[in-house]
Write a structure and sequence with these properties.
Blueprint (H helix, E strand, L loop, with lengths): L25 H7 L7 H9 E4 L4 E4 L6 E4 L6 E5 L7 E3 L3 E2 L8 H65 L3 H25 L8 H9 L1 E2 L6 H16 L7 H17 L1 E2 L4 E2 L9 H20 L2 H12 L5 H25 L27 H32 L3 H25 L3 E3 L17 E3 H6 L3 H10 L7 H18 L9 H22 L8 H17 L3 H11 L5 H18 L3 H9 L17 H4 L7 E2 L1 E3 H10 L4 E6 L15 E7 H9 L17 H7 L19 E3 L10 E3 L4 H11 L3 E5 L5 E6 H5 L1 E6 L2 E6 L1 E3 L2
Parallel strand pairs: 5-22, 12-14, 17-18
Antiparallel strand pairs: 1-2, 3-4, 6-7, 8-9, 10-11, 13-16, 14-15, 18-19, 20-21
Helix pairs in contact: 3-4, 3-6, 3-7, 3-8, 3-10, 4-6, 4-12, 5-20, 6-7, 7-8, 8-9, 8-10, 9-10, 9-18, 11-15, 11-17, 11-19, 11-20, 12-15, 14-16, 15-16, 16-17, 17-19, 18-19
The chain binds adenosine-5'-triphosphate.
Adenosine-5'-triphosphate binds next to β6, β14, β19 and α26.
Length: 811
Amino acid sequence: DPLLPGTASSSMYLSPNHGSRRTSRQEYDTEYDDDEGADIESQASYSTKIFNRLTGSYESVMGPFNKVLRQNDPDRINVKKVQAGNMHLLSAKYESLDYDVCENTLLIDEERTKGFRFIQRKDLYRWVIMIFIGVITALIACAIDITIEEISSIKYSTLKTEVDECILQGCLIVPFFLWIAWNVVPVLIGSFLVAYIEPVAAGSGIPQVKCYLNGVKVPRIVRIKTLIVKVLGVTTSVIGGLAVGKEGPMIHSGAVVAAGISQGKTTSLRKDFNTFKYFREDHEKRDFVSGGAAAGVAAAFGAPVGGVLFSLEEGASFWNQSLTWRIFFGSMISTFTLNVILSAYHGRPGELTYAGLLNFGKFDNTSYDFIEIPVFLLMGMIGGLLGALFNHINLKLTIFRMRHIYRKWAKVLEAIIVAACTATVGFSMILFINDCKPLGEDPTRYPIQMYCGDGQYSAIGAIWFQTPEASVRSLFHDPPGSHRLTSILIFFCLYFCLSIWTYGLSVSSGLFIPALLTGAAWGRVVGMGMEHFFSEASWVDPGKYALIGAAAQLGGIVRMTLSLTVILIEATGNLTLGLPLMITLMVAKWVGDYFNEGIYDTHIQLMGVPLLPWEPPPLSHNIYATEVMSCPVVTFHMKETVGTIIDVLTSESYNGFPVVDPPNPSDYEDGQVNFGTFRGLILRSQLIVLLQHKLFIETSESWDHKGVALKYFRDAYPRYPTIQQVHISDEERHFTVDLQPIMNPAPYTALNNASMPRIFRLFRGLGLRHLVIVNDNNKVVGIVTRKDLARYRLEKHMGKMRLEELTILDR
Ligand code: ATP
């Protein structure tokens, strides 16, 4: 039975339709309401039914879970162990960021007392922080680059000496095992750090940064520990010769730097510098993180505009004009700092020729002919197809990993095996492919002779005996005739497989470089074909086709368009190829999208993150707030007893609670409970800070709010204690808390007849966390959160597109 507000046990509001929390899911509830002991099979179908908006029917489409446990609440399933790799679930462990500023009495008072100068000072600090973000991100990039450069040069020169000696003495097994050791040891260190110390540092971090910019808090993603493991991890992965690059992780590193600096404290190291306190809130932090990600892109590719566009493309949901300019400034600072340091490192101080970590080098021939455009279109299609294949195989592999390679030691072992296999593949290619080129025609640093004649070197050896970035450059700039068709084709096939296997390993790694390298390989093959057919044409240059192939392959995998085009234009330093690059990337995306999603989105779905796409799902205009929202809503009154708050926070995991007026006794008719009039919204974190600092009084009479200060909330941000960590005596349970000065008195609301696209746009445009649904009389009838919207997804099923409802998995 619903509990009446203000009764001794609880003042939580429960609406009359308690027991059927969602209209759209009524069918499920009636099916299982009294069925606490439902068997695994039937619970599985509970969780996997989909609603077809075209036919208006429900259908069960997925396989059963391993083991499903349900809580008392009939609507939520508490799945202790579901079949890993299930892409039809949203995980409740991902909370949202609050982009909407809480304009409570405390904030208004602060603004009034500090005046306009305070606003100006804050703005000035934002620029200062951006400078710091740019400089520190660039310093990290330089540190990674120089370490990799130095250690790799020792690695490859040692290997070259060994190979050159052993080819004469017949002891090639020695350099082979030496190569394996050079790969395995760094990868072992890197994967150990990732598996045992900070698992979120695995991969490039771009999917996680994308989620953060979209408004989802990914746990531990912007911590200093993550940054340290990421930096060490990516350095070791590249030194270990894996099919990875260091560029992707730079985006993540920039994001962590931004999140750290803008807060003026590190919670991990328990150090508070007592600066920038006003930026300790989700809104400001997220803005800085977009700047950090952009600075990371700028440092990685020497692409400040590409950096801004990356942040815009991936996090465009909440954006403002002044942010664009500030982020661009931070990106420029980052590129400039990196350029100064790397130019000095490479012995050309002051020349500023090293704008980014990834240097594509100068293209001599960038002109293109009209008749090449169909070739670029075709290459875009090939890139799209290969990208879709990459994503498909990688998805299957990732699901396999989630189900079978989930123990830490197993993850480390797999990384080691891949490292050893990479060395074996490289060595076998050098050994068995006899592709000799005369010395002097290639800028390679460690030419090995192998079985080639005097004055010649192995072209395959040149590709393998350098970092993947250097190999990409070689394929772009090697003069025509530098490579044999068969050797490049074999290299492409093997490296393609290796890069699929490597992405998703428990190591920090970027995907850009392996994708560019495989693309450059098949692009060069296309270039050789063009050379063959148009041998007289001046515009034929295999390097140019290698670039287009690289773009197509990368675009087919990651499916970024605007930012990637600009990044590649900036990285080549040439605008002439802008159109071919754009056409190629566009076609690659369209073709790839026909088959599956981009690699980042695929991994985000596997993680169960409630990401809001750019647009509301199609076919959703006839879904109304009443179907999307949750009801009954757990609410509070303006004045609540400490005990009630503790009980609610302990029993419910929600992060936001509408504050309502107690209904008049006349509002109760025929035993029915009326809804409360909406007054504001309070967050769990705010309630916890109130209780932690004992900001309550003995009686419910008077309250001067003197003790309550914004400082408490800022100091506790972002790692608020849990309700279990707050100690309240039995006596204090009867004291009263006044929520009025703390709550957001005017949060966004929507009427119960609002359509889903309207609610969706509010969420995306304003970066909301909670949207309270009210009726015509401003009474709270429901609540919508990001997960309620993200759970609607358009999916292809048996050739038809339909709107699917995902299940929210309990934390
Ligand atoms: P977030 O996790 O995004 O920070 P939250 O923890 O408040 O927000 P969710 O985890 O998204 O909320 O909510 C899970 C489900 O609980 C959603 O279906 C949502 O509508 C519902 N819900 C959220 N808050 C309340 C509330 N106060 N009363 C009843 N249901 C709620």
